[in-house]
Amino acid sequence: MPLGMNQRKPPRRESSAASLERRMADGGLSDDARQFLRDLHAAEKQLNDAFRRAHQGGALEERVSAVYRRMYGKD
Question: What pLDDT tens digit does each residue of the chain (75 aa) get?
């Protein structure tokens, strides 16, 4: 059914990066704190992506597991 004059499109979802930027701005964080959180967010995304791929098995899984153990002191 086409949208009529009185119907609205659903609001566009805010991207993850835009949401993070908005929350940091709302929190009044310094430029240095905001940059640190951007870098941390990017690193977490990379680790999570690698960890998801690692669950497919093989040598990559062992390497990612070793990184997690070193990061969190479980070695």
Answer: 455 555 666 667 778 778 888 888 899 989 999 999 888 888 888 888 877 777 776 777 777 778 878 877 765
Quick check: pTM over 0.70?
no
How far is CA 19 from each of CA 53, 63, 74, rounded to the nearest angstrom?
Answer: 26, 32, 33
Residue 37 structure tokens = 């959180």
Q: Is 68 exposed, middle or buried (0-12, 13-18, 19+ CB in 10 A)?
A: middle
